[in-house]
Amino acid sequence: MAEITPFAYRPGDSVLHFLDTRLKFFITCLLCLSLLPAGFISCWLYCLILIFFFKKSKLPLFSMLGQIKSFLILLFFVFLSRALTTKGDLIFSAYGLEATEQGLTEGALVALKFFLVMLTGLIFSSTTRPSSVKTAVQWFLKPVPFVPENRVAVMISLALCFIPVILRQAKEVSDAQKARCANLRKNPVRKTMGLVLPLLKKTFLSADHLILAMESRCYSNDRTDSEFKPSGKEKFFLLGSIMVSLCFFIFS
Amino acid sequence: MQKTIINIEDLSFVFDDGYTGLDHVSLSIDKGEFIILAGKNGSGKTTFLKHLNGLLIPTSGMIRVNGKQVSKHLIETRKTVGMVFQDPDTQMVGDTVFDEVAFGPENLKLHRALINETVTRILKTLNLFHLRDRNPSTLSGGEKRKVAIAGILAMDPEVIVFDEPFSNLDYPGILQVLSTIMDLHRSGQTVIIATHDIEPVIFEATRMIIMKKGSIMEDGNPMALVGRLEPCGVREPCFSKFNMKPESWQK
Predict the structure, then answer these.
(1) Domain B32-44+78-241 has CATH 3.40.50.300
(2) Which of A201, A209, B21, B207 is within CB 3.0–4.6 Å of B13 for a Cys-Cys bond?
(3) Which residues in chain A have their CB less than 8 angstroms from residue B96's CB?
């Protein structure tokens, strides 16, 4: 039995699960872009709203955060790099590195914004079926000339369904390497090669098997798409997200 | 009178590297048969099955499904002959059990209402309806195989071919899958199972074909052929080795 990945769809009966995917897509993009000018107060308020929706959608926030701890480490480095490279009022210096008040504030704000973007993405992917994402992408691309919307949407849906397979295989390969004490190796290049080469081989093989399985079930670009079923609460969510976006600009 | 559903004439297949996968195979399969395709690894079982579904096109020879040449009627062939692969993990494309089963009918561009009705009916028949919103990758081995079978049944095939359906399964998983296969056969489906472990199915099968190096070595009544399995690299069932009465694995 495999572990579910943090960005996988989690079935549920919350209001977000039944919201029209096109609107969810639009709201996600709108909120993530409006976060750019946001200040601390609006970021924290938005964080509270997100936590509310995590609770409402019965998503296990803390276990999901545990699964993406490497991303949180990355955020810490983003914070550090910002804190140590921004000019301003010096707070302390050591080993030639200088931390400034402005740097710490800016670093914290940038890391918080990245974190909020990721939480927004987590809510979107956990409450939306990949098949609906595919249909929504297709719908958005339809009016764009010279873009084969069917093929783009198919590629997105295949990538979405293949990511968990690759992650599972990466874990299998890594465990197999650890079982033979590969973690004791000092050379990082050899360590990486030991993980990447078998993983690539496995991934290509799995892709080959997946293609055969899809072909045997008459796969083509021209197929019945998922239906959009508006829940009736779309207007409320659209208004709400526009207001939140405006708050980001006002309290920037 | 039994109706022939698959007819194979002098089928040969050579891989790109020159290795002969199938060597002058000829046989016909009637509607309602339950066939075991036995043979050791590399004997050509999977290559043979892939030809039935049109995934491989013969180097020479001919396969006809319902009288139509496979290479010229690929979509019809794939609707008639459904294939359940060995590793269910690499064939799951849906993010929920429901979507996974609906994948085939969606490819056939059926109307959404009909797809929903068909998938619901099949999930209920295979006792999988309570799992409809689960992610297929989080299911047990036996459940995954059943979902893979449901995905094929949703396309309403006349023949279902299974490639090593019992591999990597524990005993309850084998019983679960076996019971599903037997129900399908009882409902009139033609079943072909490629396996190197014939113990679970030999009691139920109506015919056994033993393959070796891409050729058919034996073809006939399963019970009559048990003694000829080991020279072809397939383990003889325990009941035959210990002179016991054969018994069904089904409870």
Answers:
(1) yes
(2) B21
(3) 9, 11, 129
